Amino acid sequence: MRSMLQRKLMRDMRESAMQFAALILLCMLGVFLFSGIDAIALITRHTNDACFARNKLAHLWITLPEADRDALARVRAIDGVDTAAARFVMDMEVDLPGDPVLKVTAFDGAMDVNVPVVRTGRALDPADRRGCLLQEAFAQARGLRTGDRITLVHGRQRYTLTVRGIVNSPEYINVADGMSIDTAQYGYLLCNAATFAGLPLTEIAVRLEDGADAQAVREAVQCALPAAFIVGRDVHASTQYVENNATMYRSLSIMFPLAAYAVAAMIVMTTLGRMIDNQRQQIGTLRALGYSAGSIRLHYVSYAVVPSVIGSLLGVLLGFYGLPAAVWDMLAGQSEYPFLVKPPVSAQSLAIAGLNVLVSAAICLYAFEKTTKESAAALLRPKPPRAGARIFLERIAPLWSRLSFNAKMITCCAARCAR
User: Fold this and answer.
1) Using CB atoms within 10 A of its CB, is residue 273 exposed (0-12), middle (13-18) or buried (19+)?
2) Whole-angstrom Cα distance, residue 236 to residue 322?
3) What does the alpha-carbon distance between residue 78 and residue 399 come to, in Å, rounded to a whole number?
4) Residue 95's CB: how many other CB atoms inside 10 A?
């Protein structure tokens, strides 16, 4: 008997292929949106965390009138400080058409904090006074390669450097001049402080030990260097931008798909209700043939489970893997990640897919129970029409009695169409 119900299910799915296809698409819609935005949020979060950890992004940026050796030694002596590097950061014009500007970051010694990712060329030797590392996006926009020379202008001084490597930096994932992002007009350059004789170091980049209390370290730095201005990751322009993006995508993955999910659920309810209602006499026939109530119920719940499982799985796969691939370049167009970390399908996406199946099954079960309250004999008979409702004019007896038959018919038809 079970095989007969399975064959009936397959036959009904073939005969109502468009309706089942619509159910699959509707069930896929909400899951697709959630999984896609969830994947974008996870990729952003995991990539940020991996990039910051692997390339030793600073936790604190300390600005001073002069970051001399004494100030650097005081910072390094504070409990919780892992690495500290003195440097200066300054915007300089470039002797290129259009007078672009580069944010020049000059390190005193090795780049142990905010370590750049070399895309082409090689890393910069701490003793190299004539070399530099150039931002990848700026180099591409300007057609520059390793070995090319670039001239920086500071006041009346001109500094000609050779590009040793094309890089990305975890410190400058998002690069803007304060107004807009134009990679041909604004970028960054990394070099050694020895290149610029006479320019003072004004900043110390600090990376903390694992588990260190950032607030306690900030307070200790403030006590050791009262003139210091301290910036953390929470207000550092580039870091704050990419972290806010990850938070925004996570919020969107929860809020945005709800509308689509609710609309899909309502349409699924209507579609399943009509399908079950059209099977009214077949349900009565199955009862008369001796099929148990549980077997019939399970058979008709399959009308929802089968398409919802297919739709939910398609939604998870297409959303989690397809949507980020389609829109990531547009979303990350203002950011410059050295690499991407693509996590596996999240538990939240699988949970939403499971919830989608449960909701569809519950809707189908409700429609089935509502339809099958009657006896088998009543179900075998055609469904009686619903009782008509009197229109407003019919309740005004003196007026209604004066109307002709044709006028009454036209009025009733107009009232039905208005509904």
Assistant:
1) middle
2) 32
3) 95
4) 14
Q: State how far the Cα of 324 lies from the Cα of 297, in Å rounded to an integer.
A: 40
DSSP E strands, 234-274:
none
94 and 211 housed in the same domain: yes
- Work out the angle at residue 335's Cα, subtended by the Cα atoms of residues 333 and 338, and round it to the nearest 5 degrees: 115
Closest CA to 128 of 157, 149, 104, 107: 107
Q: Are 34 and 81 members of one domain?
A: no
Q: Exposed e or buried b for every residue in 251-263, given b needs 16+ CB within 10 A?
A: ebbeeebeebbee
| AA letter at 393 | L
**Beta-bridge partner residues of 208:** 81
2 class by beta-carbon count within 10 Å (0-12 exposed, 13-18 middle, 19+ buried): exposed
Rounded to whole angstroms, the Cα distance separating 132 from 149 reads 9
Same domain, 166 and 292: no
Is the pTM higher than 0.90? Answer: no
Cα four-point dihedral sign 223, 224, 229, 232:
negative
Q: What Cα–Cα distance (Å) separates residue 169 from each residue in 15, 58, 123, 128, 202?
A: 59, 12, 12, 19, 20
Read off the pLDDT of residues 122-180 as tens digits, 9 standing for 90 and up: 999 999 999 999 999 999 999 999 999 999 999 889 999 999 999 999 998 887 655 55
Rounded distance between C-alpha atoms, residue 341 and residue 255, angstroms: 24
**Distance between CA atoms of residues 255 and 313, nearest Å:** 21
Each residue of 69-86: pLDDT tens digit? 899 999 999 999 999 999
Tally of domains within the chain: 3
- Where are the alpha helices (H) located in 90-166, listed in sequence order? 136-142
Rounded to 10 deg, the angle between the 293-317 and 2-15 helix axes is 50
Residues ≥6 apart with Cβ < 8 Å to 36: 318, 319, 320, 322, 323, 324
Buried b / exposed e over 393-410, threshold 16 CB at 10 Å, is eeeeeeebeeeeeeeeee
In a domain, 55, yes or no: no
Q: Please name every residue paired with 62 in a beta bridge, in sequence order, or none if there are none.
A: 204, 230
Q: What CA–CA distance (Å, rounded) separates 185 from 101?
A: 6
Cα separation, 30 vs 398, in Å, equals 55
Query: Do 341 and 42 contact (CB within 8 A), yes or no?
Result: no
Q: What type of residue sits at position 213? A: D
135 in a structural domain: yes
